[in-house]
Design brief:
7 helices; flat; 180 residues; single chain; mainly alpha
Length: 180
């Protein structure tokens, strides 16, 4: 009985995902009709502008949103399982502050655009986790409380470095970008 309920919930979730996926692609400043959407999916002829909007803008963005949501959901679930706390967040291990620091470093020292910014934020978050785990391994007590305390240390250090970078940042361009 419980398995049947879970199957129904899964099917409903998939239907909601399919509906929102379709709405995300069809709604916007340049609307794509359901007829054009169907023609694109089935390989029919449509206006070249509609095809361009579909393949160059809407479809990649929608896929990235779905993948990002799945990744965040899995990460949140893993954090909650590790810390045995339904309110656990990436802040606990210093991931968010590490990512903020990575992004701030990219803004100050690199001029690569959004890819460099995202990659630096990812590396900063990863470095925050690795450093927190390294600090936990240095302590005698390797429990959850040591991980949390290491995360607090990483968060404090990263925030301090970000404040220093803000002090030396160009107030016209870089400071606003870091704050945003």
């Amino acid at each position: 009985m419980k398995e049947k309920k879970n199957l129904y919930k899964f099917i409903i979730a998939l239907l909601i995902l399919a509906i929102t996926f379709t709405l995300s692609i069809t709604l916007g400043r340049y609307p794509i009709s359901m007829e054009d959407f169907g023609k694109i999916i089935l390989g029919g002829e449509v206006n070249p502008t509609t095809k361009l909007v579909f393949f160059q803008l809407r479809l990649p963005r929608t896929i990235m949103v779905v993948l990002g949501g799945l990744g965040l959901g899995m990460a949140g679930s893993i954090y909650q399982m590790i810390f045995k706390n339904p309110l656990a967040t990436p802040d606990i291990m210093g991931v968010s502050s590490g990512a903020n620091l990575g992004a701030a470093i990219a803004i100050i020292f690199f001029t690569g655009g959004s890819f460099v910014l995202g990659f630096s934020a990812f590396l900063g978050g990863l470095l925050g986790v690795i450093t927190a785990i390294g600090l936990t391994n240095l302590s005698k007590d390797k429990g959850i409380s040591s991980i949390v305390l290491a995360g607090i240390v990483i968060t404090s250090i990263a925030q301090g470095i970000i404040m220093m970078l803000k002090y030396f940042a160009d107030p016209e361009r870089q400071l606003a970008a870091i704050e945003f």
